[in-house]
Amino acid sequence: MSGQGQRSRREPPPPGLLVVDKPAGWTSHDVVGRARRLVGTRKVGHAGTLDPMATGVLVLGVERATKLLGHLALDTKTYLATVRLGLATTTDDAEGEAVGDPADTAGLGERAIADGVAALTGAIDQVPSSVSAIRVDGRRAYERARAGEEVELAARPVTVHRFDVLAARTDGPFRDLDVLVDCSSGTYVRALARDLGAGLGVGGHLTALRRTRVGPFTLAHARTIETLAAEEEADGRASLSLDLDTAVATAFPRRDADADEAAGLAHGRPLPAGGGPGTVGVFGPDGHVIGLVADDRGAARPVLVLAPA
Question: What's this model's pTM, rounded to 2 decimal places?
Answer without folding.
Answer: 0.89
